[in-house]
DNA sequence: CGTTCTTATAGTATTATAAGAACGGTGCCATACT
């Protein structure tokens, strides 16, 4: 038995890797930069966990959400893998300093891009042997890095600071442009690439054009009444989230809840757990819901508002049909809904005619207060302020005139890129001739090889009805307090 | 850009309608002490 198989067996209890995992593990073992686009729920974490455990030194896993770190750690703990830890703000000061002290005895450290960018963390990492860095959900680099969470763009520089270890990026969805962006930001040079199809053949795709908000609501109610669920309804505002929750609670027999960033952590955890355990049929949510959701039997994803680009769309519908059974996704398309993503996009970028004022403001504040000052003195959104602060930090020595000129161009460039993505999304919705699946795959640089049945509305399919299994397994309902307890304080859970 | 809420006016008791304004998503983060 070779070393790899031995380790696989020892740590994970498997006798062999799946065909697509094998080459990725090999590349990482030999220290080659790797970009992998793999469908969700396909055992991608083992692709980096195994090499990390076999290597001599520390692997950093950059993860976008604390809950994702927590999930993966629970899984590792369940397999009695001890050399793994997280560093994040959810931990007590004691726990944090303990982790930093025992870094050299760890194999895996889960960390957010923000924590990874803290100067004292970088200094500490320089003292230990970092052999590999992994960016999980790497599309976040492109989706969030440029404005919302600019620390995503600092992963590349940190990599260089800690001795340029091997870099791996994993995601389930990336267009060719996003792949390029990931490679550039992470400073990957000629990485090995494993790009799998983003097509989910068991999800049928539909778009239903509506002419008014009222019609859309009626259609929503009709569809949900007839869908046994479980399913998700995506909207782009918190208010709408709550409103539609109420509507569906009144008009359908389903258990319905709303999920968005305005809820506190406890409520969010609760809803996610209830949905996971089958105690909720429908969750009306904003784009905050779904990442890391490990639920196999989601039957449908309904977009009450359409998302701002095709990647978000693929990601969101990808939460359906993980169990391989027939699932469907439908968009209730109302033309004027385009204004919401447009406004949100606009609010992420600095107003071009205030760049001069922003420069003056920044010049008179300390670096760590630049963002706050831009928000308070100029009334900018947090995201726009962060965008500017990041840019100034990156180019500290540029002359004012030159900097403002560059900045304006950069803002226009970003606006252009975002608008283009939105336009592609709308074109997809408006299209009435070409198979939706074919067109969607085109955005990801893929050709449609084989059309599944059902495929999409344009191919003549209608929303499939799932046969209900006659003898559903009995629900085991533990008190909620107990489940929350498990989540906060941990309890070994089995997975897979 | 449309929805939804607030304020203003009309004109006269209680409400009706118009004009104006606000709003619309994603999450992470060392600090105080000698």
From TrEMBL:
Gene3D superfamilies: P-loop containing nucleotide triphosphate hydrolases (3.40.50.300). GO terms for cellular component: bacterial nucleoid; cytoplasm; replisome. It holds the Pfam family DEAD. Residues 25-192 form the Helicase ATP-binding domain. PROSITE patterns: HELICASE_ATP_BIND_1, HELICASE_CTER. Residues 216-363 form the Helicase C-terminal domain. Keywords: ATP-binding, Helicase, Hydrolase, Nucleotide-binding. InterPro entries: DEAD/DEAH_box_helicase_dom (IPR011545), DNA_helicase_ATP-dep_RecQ (IPR004589), Helicase_ATP-bd (IPR014001), Helicase_C-like (IPR001650), P-loop_NTPase (IPR027417), RecQ_Zn-bd (IPR032284). GO terms for molecular function: 3'-5' DNA helicase activity; ATP binding; four-way junction helicase activity; hydrolase activity; nucleic acid binding. Signal peptide: none annotated. One of its GO terms (biological process) is DNA recombination. SUPFAM superfamilies: P-loop containing nucleoside triphosphate hydrolases. This is ATP-dependent DNA helicase RecQ.
């Amino acid at each position: 038995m070779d070393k790899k198989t031995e380790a696989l067996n020892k740590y994970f209890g498997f006798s062999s890797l799946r065909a697509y995992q094998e080459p990725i593990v090999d590349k990482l073992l030999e220290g080659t930069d790797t970009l992998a686009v793999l469908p969700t729920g396909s055992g991608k974490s083992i692709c980096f966990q195994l090499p990390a455990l076999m290597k001599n030194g520390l692997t950093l896993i950059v993860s976008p959400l604390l809950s994702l770190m927590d999930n993966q750690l629970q899984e590792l703990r369940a397999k009695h893998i001890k050399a793994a830890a997280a560093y994040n703000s959810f931990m007590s000061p004691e726990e944090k300093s303990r982790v930093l002290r025992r870094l050299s005895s760890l194999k895996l450290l889960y960390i957010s891009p923000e924590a990874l960018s803290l100067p004292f963390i970088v200094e500490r990492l320089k003292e230990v042997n970092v052999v590999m860095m992994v960016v999980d959900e790497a599309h976040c680099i492109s989706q969030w890095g440029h404005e919302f969470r600019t620390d995503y763009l600092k992963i590349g520089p940190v990599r260089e600071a800690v001795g340029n270890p091997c870099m791996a990026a994993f995601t389930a969805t990336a267009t060719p442009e996003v792949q390029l962006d990931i490679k550039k930001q992470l400073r990957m040079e000629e990485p090995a690439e494993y790009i799998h199809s983003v097509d989910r053949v068991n999800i049928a795709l539909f778009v239903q054009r509506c002419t008014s908000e009222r019609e859309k609501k009626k259609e929503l109610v009709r569809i949900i009444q007839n869908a046994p669920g479980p399913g998700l309804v995506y909207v782009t505002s918190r208010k709408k989230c709550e409103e539609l929750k109420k509507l569906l609670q009144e008009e359908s027999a389903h258990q319905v809840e709303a999920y968005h960033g305005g809820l506190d952590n406890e409520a969010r955890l609760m809803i996610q757990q209830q949905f996971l355990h089958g105690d909720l049929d429908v969750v009306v949510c904003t784009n905050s819901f779904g990442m890391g959701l490990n639920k196999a039997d989601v039957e449908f994803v309904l977009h009450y508002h359409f998302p701002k680009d095709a990647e978000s769309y693929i990601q969101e519908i990808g939460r359906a049909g993980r169990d391989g059974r027939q699932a469907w996704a439908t968009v209730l398309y109302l033309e004027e809904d385009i204004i919401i993503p447009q406004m949100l996009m606009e609010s992420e970028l600095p107003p071009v005619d205030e760049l001069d004022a922003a420069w003056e403001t920044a010049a008179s504040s300390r670096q760590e207060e630049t963002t706050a000052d831009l928000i308070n003195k100029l009334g900018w959104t947090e995201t726009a302020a962060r965008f500017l602060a990041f840019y100034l930090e990156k180019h500290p020595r540029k002359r004012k005139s030159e900097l403002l000129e560059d900045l304006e161009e950069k803002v226009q460039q970003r606006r252009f890129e975002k608008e283009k993505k939105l336009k592609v999304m709308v074109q997809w919705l408006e299209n009435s001739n070409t198979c939706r699946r074919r067109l969607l795959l085109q955005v990801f640089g893929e050709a449609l090889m084989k059309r599944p049945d059902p495929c999409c509305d344009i191919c003549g399919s209608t929303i499939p009805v799932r046969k209900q299994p006659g003898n559903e397994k009995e629900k085991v309902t533990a008190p909620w307090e107990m489940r929350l307890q498990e989540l906060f304080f941990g309890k070994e859970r089995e997975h897979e």
